[in-house]
């Protein structure tokens, strides 16, 4: 390759034969929640897109990364219910550098510093409403079924840190259609679930992204 040609990164494998980074929230030896970053989504080999285009090593954020884990009962033991529950978010920034690690260790932020910053974070309220029109092709069984709508830990009936909300549909017993599958007999009464939540105001992040996307669409439509 000509010395002046731009570098083209090969597909990163960190460690070898690995294509994802998994992060976990731990309480002692117990895993509370996990999140996964796929290297194919946060890096680029460059040549895969266009010959001669330089790629980039894995990078992410700074952005909030949600963590999910198994549902637990009030005693803190894993529940027999299927599905996962929201466990929290981490403001994460990831960057990759070539070379030998310098051996520096990161210290945890003191709890009193976190509490002091949280009091000054501006917050915004968000509402989420869902209308369930039908529930078909359900598994057979005598158990009563219901649907739950949640936004983070808001609306999660197993989470005691937030106020209860009308986030679940009434229980219903699936009926057999007489042919192949079961369904919930909602007919003309469609269940409605609603959740109101409060989060720190991160508008300065998504407002800039929305502005850039709108500018790109305008340029494409104008010069396309």
From TrEMBL:
Keywords: Membrane, Repeat, Transmembrane, Transmembrane helix. It is found in: Membrane. InterPro entries: Ferlin (IPR037721). The keyword Transmembrane helix applies. One of its GO terms (cellular component) is membrane. GO terms for biological process: membrane fusion; plasma membrane organization. This is MYOF protein. It comes from Balaeniceps rex (Shoebill).
